[in-house]
Amino acid sequence: MRLILLGPPGAGKGTQATRLVEKFGIPQLSTGDMLRAAVKAGTPVGLRVKAVLESGSLVSDDIVVGIVADRIDEPDAKGGFILDGFPRTIAQAEALDAMLARKDMKLGAAIELQVDPDKLIDRILRRAEQAMAAGQPVRKDDDPEVFKTRLAAYQRDTAAVTPYYRDRGVLHVVDGMAPIGNVSASIDEILAAYA
Ligand code: AMP
What we know:
Blueprint lengths: L1 E5 L6 H12 L3 E3 H11 L2 H12 L5 H11 L9 E4 L5 H13 L6 E6 L2 H17 L10 H15 L2 H7 L3 E5 L4 H13 L3
Parallel strand pairs: 1-3, 1-4, 2-3, 4-5
Helix pairs in contact: 2-3, 4-5, 6-7
């Protein structure tokens, strides 16, 4: 199964992706995680993107597309994958289509977690508090000001990705403001048709 999770930062894509990894035994390909790992490791890509990540803006399409193209070639992604945080622009969505066509792979579903943008700031503040309480590092870009930039980038560039998949007949929309258990159940119901 090849799956895309869509929705603004803080919508719960990471939480759902983690759960689906367990359920289907396919990897979560989070471009945010990959970019943060590159920054931490100080790779050439990491050095190029560090300041962009900290600002909350989007990294250039060519860098992100390159990372995803390499990642889906890894053996663990052969049987499927869950894309989390990619594609974030129409150009990335088109690049993904081309990539999959070249590999003779087909996309299963795109699931959008629809949320109320006004409530996201609260959710992200809670995420930071919980991380702190658990002694985990707080993401620098979960700072409320940076988060606003991330949300603006979503509204400017990424919101257009949803209609892209709707036009291709693969989009499913789930209420991401519902309790986590309900969100999970809705996603499972959608994916039952793809199993
Ligand atoms: P995330 O963990 O998905 O919220 O991503 C964290 C940050 O990584 C974003 O604010 C962007 O700076 C960068 N990023 C992640 N995925 C992408 C993408 N598909 N395109 C551009 N930038 C990205």
